[in-house]
Amino acid sequence: NADAAMYLAKSSGRNSYKFYTADLNARAREILAIESQLRFALERDEFVLHYQPLVDMHSGRVVGAEALIRWQHPNLGLIGPAGFIQVAEERGFIVQIGNWVIREACRQLAEWLARGLPAVKVSVNLSALQFRQQELSTVIEDALAEHGLSGDCLDVEVTETVVMEDAEATLAAIERIKGMGLSLSVDDFGTGYSSLSYLKRFKADKIKIDRSFVRDIPGDSDDAAITRAIINMAKFLNMKVVAEGVETREQWDFLAGEGCDLVQGFLVAKPMPAADFAARYGKTPRVELAELGL
Ligand code: C2E
Ligand code: MG
Ligand code: MG
Ligand code: MG
């Protein structure tokens, strides 16, 4: 009856409130701890970039490397971006960290090229706040110039949400970046809210299908349909399409059958330190599909 229902609602409400505050306190403490140390992580040189290959499905060629940040914490070991990027964004550290990522990716690529390694395009992830700083394009320009690189060595990955948040300013920044020869990828596509007209306006070169859609293909018919639709849309818009998070042969086969261009995922390789990336792909920048069982 109504009273019993009300009682249940109240008691479960109170319980969940208690859990919520406990969680919140734990989360607050965690944020404080991370925040106080994150502040010094840059000057202590504790960040590293790992690299994950982007592979052309048809040829097996490694056409790119996504640079993914990790924090080498003195006590806690290697911390992935899930453990600190959000805090860095909330506290405004992300701009400096993101600028470091751009410079470090350029430095690494120049080092590889100087050692005669074949050129791969390096992708860096940019957060929304980096687009709000006036000097983003200058930071990129200086980093490229310092290492003697041209703009087409770099690709920037932004999520749909970044573009939608402050569309006009972001579009202007993207235009400047593209004018320098960089390519643009829309990351985590399908998880944010985007309008197809913006997608067209900012002329992305690549769309990266979010891992959450790839995970359950081909078995999940909804995800299969969404994946197929994104691939077809990308084709019509003349954009390359990348499937993120490809872990199985079945996912690969489905994507290949649907005409997906590029894949990134544990099936090919996990993100790895720069030295490992060079050792593995430096001589022959390709993946033997037969070795993957393909
Ligand atoms: P993202 O840009 O979508 O990067 C792909 C993420 O998927 C990476 O996680 C990668 O390790 C993971 N991944 C790739 N293939 C597979 C797979 O087959 N299976 C599974 N389970 N995961 C796979 P990671 O390195 O933990 O990065 C997470 C997110 O953190 C990135 O998602 C990106 O949004 C953010 N991030 C990473 N580096 C930076 C950075 O330098 N700056 C900013 N602003 N964000 C970054
Ligand atoms: Mg990315
Ligand atoms: Mg992604
Ligand atoms: Mg992501």
Automatic annotation (TrEMBL):
Domain EAL: 31-285
Source organism superkingdom: Bacteria
The protein's name in its UniProt record: Diguanylate cyclase
Range covered out of full length: 650 to 943 of 943
